[in-house]
């Protein structure tokens, strides 16, 4: 039974996905204004290979936006020669509070096409992130940008020009590409698109609202509302706060309309802030231009130090890298140098490298010529034994070596003399110094022994005096009984084996 349920679940998922794909493909994009498709671009950036656009978007007053399955968001890039579309991934960003019409209940699930005066829709998971490979853009061509939102419950797909008002063009660099993002704030006009938009004193959702002039009604008194369809051409500032852009404007008092005190563009009331969901844009939509840029090669340098007299090899200390070609160290040229490797000091070597397009980089490598370190010589000598009265030469078995000077054995000097007539241990010390007068000494022990002491440890056997006729050694007498017993045991064992 569980297996059957599992298969039914898989079939349902596949059917749902297939239905969604069919439904998505069946959509016909309807071109609308920002009043019907509200959006916000929060950031545009690049990484090594991609253009990344983040923001939020939703279709207003048509359905609930509850999760990432009931709507889809696309970005469309186009020019006269090329056109392509990229689906964005969705993330949990809410605009429900911003779009709430106070006093109206929440719309029921599944309801569509309701005005905010009737009920409020939820706008959840409306955040999007679109990643576009930079090499998808034709180099040097400018692309305009549209945003497309598909609302699956309502069964509609709306498209409008995407704006990202900026004080100045945004230039981004990645790898060998330069991306220019254009949507100039000073070339943008704002048009109020709703009748119930309050004038804020600050750029935030919970801002205090303006009250000014005479009352228009007992309900709204002199609270200030933007006049619908009013165009604002003077935009003083743009601030993004809590994922929403706010624009600082100036206003003048206007007539009472719909029992509300209205304002239009002016200078009397400042600052007046309006949130981006309540304005339409006109001017320069978002444009993307990706160009290939030849970047200059650069050097990777290591600290260059040699010892006095050593040979200097430039390639041991510098490498040339080009973003387009990779390692081009073989093209490094030494332009000039004041290096004297035999004189201690700090020197400069001027170098250059050019890429295949002739873009050249110049740099200077500094070289330190250092005093060569002097290592102490080493004396090789070991303790020894000599026979009393022997003719002893203290240098016969001694050697010395120096890293810089080589073999110094002939320069070793004994620091004292051994009297070979005196038995016992004697200290014998040696001394040597190198060409830079760095000296070292070493002492060994010379043991002088007598011939007699050696001979006493040897037993000579004579055919005229066989050993079994000799008297037992003194140290054997105490063990005589034991030795006799061992001998008797050996004889007894022998008799038994014969029988």
Summarize the helices and strands and which ones pair or pack.
Elements lengths: L1 H25 L3 E2 L5 E10 L3 E10 L11 E8 L4 E5 L1 E3 L4 H4 L27 E7 L8 E10 L4 E6 L8 E5 L2 E6 L6 E4 L31 E3 L4 E2 L4 E5 L2 E14 L2 E6 L3 E7 L3 E4 L4 E6 L5 E4 L2 E4 L10 E5 L3 E2 L5 E5 L7 E10 L5 E11 L7 E3 L3 E4 L11 E4 L3 E2 L5 E2 L9 E10 L5 E11 L1 H5 L18 H4 L2 H19 L1
Parallel strand pairs: 1-9, 13-17, 22-27, 29-34
Antiparallel strand pairs: 2-3, 3-7, 4-5, 4-8, 6-7, 8-9, 8-20, 10-11, 11-20, 12-14, 12-19, 15-16, 16-17, 16-18, 21-23, 23-24, 25-26, 26-27, 28-30, 30-31, 32-33, 33-34
Task: Write structural notes for this entry.
This protein has 499 residues and is mainly β. Among the domains are: 163-293, no CATH class; 296-370, Immunoglobulin-like, CATH 2.60.40; 378-454, Immunoglobulin-like (Sandwich), CATH 2.60.40. It has five helices and 34 strands. It has helices at 2-26, 96-99, 451-455, 474-477, 480-498, and strands at 30-31, 37-46, 50-59, 71-78, 83-87, 89-91, 127-133, 142-151, 156-161, 170-174, 177-182, 189-192, 224-226, 231-232, 237-241, 244-257, 260-265, 269-275, 279-282, 287-292, 298-301, 304-307, 318-322, 326-327, 333-337, 345-354, 360-370, 378-380, 384-387, 399-402, 406-407, 413-414, 424-433, 439-449. Strands 1, 4, 5, 8, 9, 10, 11 and 20 form an eight-stranded mixed beta sheet that branches. Strands 13, 15, 16, 17 and 18 form a five-stranded mixed beta sheet that branches. Strand 2 (37-46) and strand 3 form a beta hairpin. The longest helix is centred in the N-terminal third of the chain and has 25 residues, at 2-26. It is elongated. The two termini are 95 Å apart. Mean pLDDT is 85; it is low at 5-25.
């Amino acid at each position: 039974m569980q297996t059957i349920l599992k298969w039914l679940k898989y079939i349902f998922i596949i059917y749902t996905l297939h239905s969604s794909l069919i439904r998505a493909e069946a959509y016909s994009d309807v071109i609308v204004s920002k009043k019907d498709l509200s959006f916000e671009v929060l950031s545009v950036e690049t990484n090594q290979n991609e253009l990344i656009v983040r923001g939020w978007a939703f279709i207003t007053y048509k359905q609930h936006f509850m999760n990432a399955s009931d709507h889809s968001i696309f970005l469309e890039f186009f020019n006269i020669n090329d056109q392509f579309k990229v689906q964005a991934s969705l993330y949990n960003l809410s605009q429900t509070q911003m779009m709430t019409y106070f006093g109206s209940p929440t719309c029921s699930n599944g309801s569509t096409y309701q005005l905010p005066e009737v009920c409020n829709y939820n706008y959840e998971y409306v955040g999007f992130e679109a990643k576009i490979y930079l090499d998808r853009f034709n180099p040097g061509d400018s692309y305009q940008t549209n945003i497309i939102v598909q609302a699956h419950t309502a069964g509609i797909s709306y498209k409008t020009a995407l704006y990202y008002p900026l004080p100045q063009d945004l230039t981004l660099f990645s790898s060998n590409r330069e991306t220019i993002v254009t949507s100039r704030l000073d070339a943008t006009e704002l048009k109020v698109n709703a009748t119930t938009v309050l004038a804020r004193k600050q750029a935030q959702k919970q801002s205090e609202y303006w009250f000014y002039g005479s009352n228009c009604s007992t309900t709204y008194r002199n609270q200030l509302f933007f006049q619908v369809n009013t165009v604002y051409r003077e935009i003083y500032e743009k601030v993004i706060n809590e994922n929403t852009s706010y624009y600082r404007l100036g206003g003048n008092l206007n007539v009472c309309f719909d029992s509300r005190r209205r304002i239009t563009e002016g200078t009397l009331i400042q600052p007046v802030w309006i949130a981006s969901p309540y304005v339409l844009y006109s001017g320069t939509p978002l444009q993307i231009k990706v160009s290939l840029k030849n970047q200059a090669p650069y050097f990777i340098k290591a600290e260059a130090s040699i010892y006095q007299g050593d040979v200097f090899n430039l390639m041991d200390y510098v490498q040339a890298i080009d973003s387009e070609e990779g390692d081009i160290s073989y093209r490094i040229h030494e332009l000039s140098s004041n290096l004297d490797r035999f004189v201690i000091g700090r020197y400069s070597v001027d170098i250059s490298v050019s890429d295949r397009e002739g873009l050249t980089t110049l740099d200077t490598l500094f070289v330190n010529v250092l005093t060569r370190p002097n290592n102490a010589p080493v004396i090789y000598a070991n303790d020894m034994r000599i026979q009393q009265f022997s003719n002893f030469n203290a240098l016969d078995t001694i050697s010395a070596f120096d890293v810089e000077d080589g073999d110094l054995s002939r320069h070793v000097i004994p620091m004292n003399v051994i009297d070979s007539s005196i038995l016992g241990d004697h200290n014998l010390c040696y001394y040597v110094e190198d060409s830079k007068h760095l000296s070292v000494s070493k002492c060994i022990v010379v043991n002088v022994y007598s011939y007699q002491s050696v001979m006493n440890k040897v037993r000579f056997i004579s055919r005229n005096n066989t050993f079994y006729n000799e008297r037992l050694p003194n140290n054997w007498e105490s063990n005589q009984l034991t030795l006799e017993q061992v001998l008797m045991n050996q004889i007894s064992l022998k008799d038994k084996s014969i029988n």
